[in-house]
Amino acid sequence: MSRILVTGSADGLGRAAADALLSDGHEVVVHARNERRAADLAALADRGAQLVVGDFADRDAVRRVAVELADAEPLDAVVHNAGVWSGPAVMPVNIVAPYLLTALLPGPRRLVYLSSGSHYGGRPSLTGVDWRGGSAGSYADSKLFVTTLAAAVARLRPGVLSNAVDPGWVPTKMGGPGAPDDLELGHRTQVWLAAGDDPEALTSGGYWYHRERQEPHRAVHDEAFQDRLLHALAEETGTAL
Fold first, then answer.
1. N or C: which end of the chain has fewer CB within 10 A?
2. Percent of the residues in the chain that have a pLDDT greater than 70, as a whole number
3. How far is CA 80 from CA 46, 111, 135, in A?
4. Model pTM greater than 0.85?
5. 186, 13 in Cβ contact below 8 A?
6. Cα 57 from Cα 116, distance rounded (Å)
7. Could you give the C-alpha distances from 123 to 2, 19, 139, 217, in angstroms and in order?
């Protein structure tokens, strides 16, 4: 049994992943943005899930969640699922929050970051990025950044299994009812990488789609770009990886 945090688990793929991990007998920590959203997790809490609450658009809230988690039993894995599609919260939620949690929670030995096929359209440039969300951010850029973060962690923490997952364009609230991909398949790779014991699930540095390893944007494995991204995030947050 593993202890696994799934961020953004009030609905969609995060909830599906948390539900599957609970059903497999793992100890799961679920996360909601606020108390209203936390009420939606009552059914999972009744099955034994623990709960943390914090708006990941607010980096101080991310730090409070990290302190709360650090004071509890150690985590074995984190599924960085929380994300937003558009608006000023894109950069704070999609890349700053997972970066901070990665920096502040050094214990987990498995890290799974939610990417997207949209990352192929991202720009490998850090010029003018509004990390604080004063203006609308680029979803594609944020997913390129978080996919690069996953690869950087795999390189810099050889004892950690760090991977990125494209769950597909699935019919969640974010994806919309007309999304063509399979909702059931959308969470399985995250669960497999967070807790599976297949040899492939015990690898690191991958970009996965439905349990098949894919080739990401060429910038993802560019170590110079990885280092520039980590430096920019460390300077912006005052927290080094």
1. N
2. 93
3. 23, 7, 23
4. yes
5. yes
6. 19
7. 36, 35, 11, 10
